[in-house]
Amino acid sequence: MGPINSTNAAVPENLFELTIDHIDPLGQGVAKVLSDNVPEIYFIPKTLPGEVVLTKVEKKTNNLNFSWPQKIIKKSERRISPNCQHFDTCNGCHFLHTDYASELEFKKNSFLGEFKRQMKWDLSEKVSSIGAPTRVQYRNRMQLHYTLNNKPQLGLKFKNSLTAVPHCLLPNSTISRKMQQLFLDDHWLTLLPPGSPRNGHLELETVGGHCRIRWNRPYADEGFTQVNSVMNQKLVDQVKLMSQSCFPKTPEKQKIVVDLFCGNGNLSKELQSEFTVIGSDFKAVHDQKLERFHEFNLFHPKAVEKFLTVFPETKNYGGILIIDPPRSGFKNIADWTSELRPQYLIAVSCHYSTLIRDLKNLKLKEEQVQSIVLVDMFPGTYHIECVALIKL
Questions:
Q1: pLDDT digits (tens, 9 = 90+) for 26-42
Q2: What are the residue ranges spanned by the domains of the chain?
């Protein structure tokens, strides 16, 4: 199949000249064209709406084409020069080719678009965004991958290979200095523990003002924490404001908050002066900040039953349920709400497609959504944290 919608007769057979229509939830430009009356969809990273791009298809599945831009023929007025030297050859960031206000707008539009497409809801009047004070040097934790096959490599995964990113702008200054040391003359190879697998990863984390390196450990095995401390506090503040709005006149400690996937109590620890907070997660965290906590596999078929044996006061408790599940979501959320019967749900999610699926399981109506706040925990990338207040 030759070029589609091409205005340039010199375009090679394997390249396509396309106009970007919008940005999808993965931060990619989307172009839609007809080929023999069949719609073809093209996903093209590093592009912006309205741009005309020359692109090469690298993978095709049915009518879905995954492409990479070869040349920007017509640039958007929103395009800027990315301030990261790795941007064009790295998939760690997705929006550094445009200004931050546009990034927030694209993220919000993608969020609203998914709810409209999957739920037929128009939440434009109920969704607001909180931007970050800085787009760079905000990560207090960074993960890199390595391989010892053929030529040893260290970097971020990109197009089935690893891209070296010694000057990545995302980590804070402490981690940034350590990363530059690791990449210099392959210094990382001298630190690799004996017996390490040929393919693995390392995690750099700021601890006590220093950078700690951990090799090939399970993700968040010491307890999950957010990578952006400043925006995490804004998220905590939103959860607190939403909780207070649910029961503004209730006497102190008279309402129960159940915090599932609570980790170290990050989202609910500041509620303990106003509510009775009960937390649960897969395992106890060494710095658990909640007064009442019990360890559960929250996905177990009998998890709710076991939870009620420990906290019988939560059956039909009529308070607030806070959930912050992993990226895969909380498929059995309806089991919990049907037994606990909270009046309100505060759902925090870093992946709104699974949030939409979970809300579908609750068979909600659009008017039950009180408000949703998008907290930009991951500037420069397509990821965004959202917190939704639902009246059950």
A1: 999 999 998 788 889 99
A2: 1-79, 111-132+228-391, 141-215
**Which segment of 2-6, 105-109, 320-324 scores lowest on mean pLDDT?**
2-6
Third-level CATH fold of 1-79: OB fold (Dihydrolipoamide Acetyltransferase, E2P) (2.40.50)
CA distance 232 to 227: 8
Give the whole-angstrom CA distance, residue 195 versus residue 64.
42
For residue 270, give both structure tokens.
């500041």
Comparing 1-79 with 111-132+228-391, is the CATH topology the same?
no
CATH class entry, domain 111-132+228-391: alpha beta
DSSP 55-79: EEEEEEETTEEEEEEEEEEE--TTB
pLDDT in tens, 71-126: 999 999 999 999 999 999 999 999 999 999 999 999 999 999 999 999 999 999 99
| Tokens representing residue 119 in the block | 């739920």
Taking alpha carbons only, the member of 16, 9, 8, 91 closest to residue 57 is: 16
Query: Where is average pLDDT lowest: 5-9, 27-31, 57-61, 68-72?
Result: 5-9
For the residues 336-363, what does the mean pLDDT come to? 95
The phi, psi pair for 32, rounded to 5°, reads: -125, 130
Rounded distance, CA 69 to CA 43, Å? 10
> Is 92 within 8 Å of 46 (Cβ atoms)?
no
What single DSSP character describes residue 135? S
